[in-house]
Design brief:
The protein has 180 residues and is of the alpha+beta class. It contains 6 helices and 6 strands.
Length: 180
């Protein structure tokens, strides 16, 4: 968390920690799913796991620890996969980091109508104003949300945009993994 502001909320710090971790792996990575657990609870209930994660010496009392989950299945649409997830009670939130192509709002009027998903994806990939972006989105069981966006062309920890409503559709899909 070297580039994470200490005044940030625990959820913002967790999102920026995940963004920094995934950034260190480089671009063109698969989507990565993380469980978020209460750090103090983890230290108390699983001291050996906390020690393995390097959390045993930390003095912070309020925080979230991201724990990367198994690789997401390839060939299955992300929204279909997210619909199959159920989290145990110890997980207080979850986060997903995924890379996508995005177009600026000015390109919306240019989008051809009635394209299949595959043709639309091809059209976006060939658009001269497209930008590669890594989105890290997290939600807590109580509905709190946070996101971090990093453009490939501005790949720097100081150029990461954060906010709770940057990727509302993905946040909704992650929140649904906690629905009863």
């Amino acid at each position: 968390m070297s580039n994470t502001p200490m005044a940030a909320s625990p959820l913002t710090r967790a999102v920026l920690e995940i963004d920094e971790y995934v950034s260190g792996l480089g671009w063109d990575q698969p989507a990565r799913l993380f469980a978020l657990v209460d750090t103090a609870r983890l230290r108390n209930q699983e001291p050996s796991l906390a020690a393995q994660l390097g959390l045993d010496g930390e003095s912070e009392t309020a925080g979230l620890t991201p724990i990367e989950q198994d690789e997401l299945p390839s060939g299955k649409p992300l929204d279909d996969f997210l619909g199959t997830i159920a989290w145990p009670d110890a997980v207080v939130g979850c986060a997903l980091s995924v890379e996508r192509l995005m177009l600026p709002p000015s390109a919306e009027a240019q989008v051809p109508q009635n394209l299949s998903d595959a043709k639309l994806a091809k059209w976006v990939a060939e658009h001269p104003e497209r930008q590669e972006v890594r989105m890290t989105v997290a939600v807590l069981r109580d509905g709190t949300r946070e996101s971090a966006l990093r453009l490939r062309e501005k790949d720097s920890p100081t150029e990461v945009l954060t906010g709770p409503e940057l990727v509302p559709g993905l946040a909704d899909a992650l929140a649904a993994t906690f629905a009863d």
